[in-house]
Amino acid sequence: MPECELCGRQSSQLYVANIEGATLHICSSCAAGAKGVKGPVARPAAATVSAQERGSNADVPSLIDGYGFAIRQARERMKLPLKVMAEMLSEKETLLLRIEEGKAQPTVELTRKLEKFLGIRLTEESRDESGFVAGKAPEATLGDFIKKG
Ligand SMILES: [Zn+2]
At 76, phi and psi to the nearest 5? Predict the structure, then answer.
């Protein structure tokens, strides 16, 4: 079993961390208090990065611009009051309103539900594996999404 290079404890899961310029393999309890932790080392570096990227993007689908407007337009075309649509989708009316106003983002699941229900497309097509990860800062992206609208 590998040993933590900081405290010497044996751990099945070590993390790569940059501590005062040195790259160390440390255990999870040391990683919890350390800065510059890059993530578990058990997985290949590429897999780790894409897993993190996919993790942050799983909750935040790559929605089209004006997704809220698109939802509202489609709903009004069907002459469906928001309340009725909320009931049919088993979702909160207030949540759907915030989504229509662009103040909230639907989850992947809800996005799929809305797309199917309204017969529209709400997500970007280009979600190819190639180059998807390159040059993306997850925190900034997440921040942008939250601030959006
Ligand atoms: Zn340790």
Answer: -70, -30
